[in-house]
Amino acid sequence: MPAERPIDPNGEASRRVASWLERYAPPAGVPDELVGLDGRVRAHWRRLLDTLAGLGRDDIDDRFAAAGRRIRDMGVSYRVLGESKERSWPLSRLPLLLPQAEWREIEAGVAQRAELLDRVLRDVYGEGRLVKEGALPAAVVAGSPEYIRPMAGVAPPGGRWLRFYAADIGRGPDGRWWVLGDRAQAPSGAGYALENRLVLARTFPRLYRDMKVQRLAPFFRDFRAGLSKAAQQKDPRICLLTPGPFSETYSEQVNLARYLGLLLVEGADLVTSERKLHVRTIAGLKRVDVVWRRVDADWCDPLELNAASQLGVPGLLDAIRDGNVTLANMPGAGLVESRALLGFLPALARRLLGEDLRLANIATWWCGQDAARDEVIASLEERAVAPAFGENLAGFPGRRVALGGEFDASERARLVDLMHARGMDYVGQEVVQLSTTPVWREDGLAPRPFALRVFAAATADGWRVMPGGFCRVSDRLDVRAITMGAGAQSADVWVLADRPIDNASLLPTSDDIEIVRMVGDLPSRAADNLFWMGRYIERAEATLRLVRCLCNRLTEADAPNYSGRQPIERLERILLAWGAAPAKTPRLAAAELAQAAAAGSEAPGSALSVARSARQAASIIRERLSQDIWQLINRLESRLQELGSGLCSEPELLETAEQSLHIVAALSGLIDENVNRVAGWSFLDLGKRVERAINACRFARAFADEGATIDSLDTLLELIDSQITYRSRYLAGAALAPALDMALLDPYNPRSVCFQVTRIDEHLAALPTLRHDGLLEQPRRLSVKLRAEIEVEDAVMLDATRIFAIEQRLMSLADALAGRYFLQGSNAAHFEEPVRLA
Question: 141 — phi, psi (to 5°)?
Answer without folding.
Answer: -85, -60
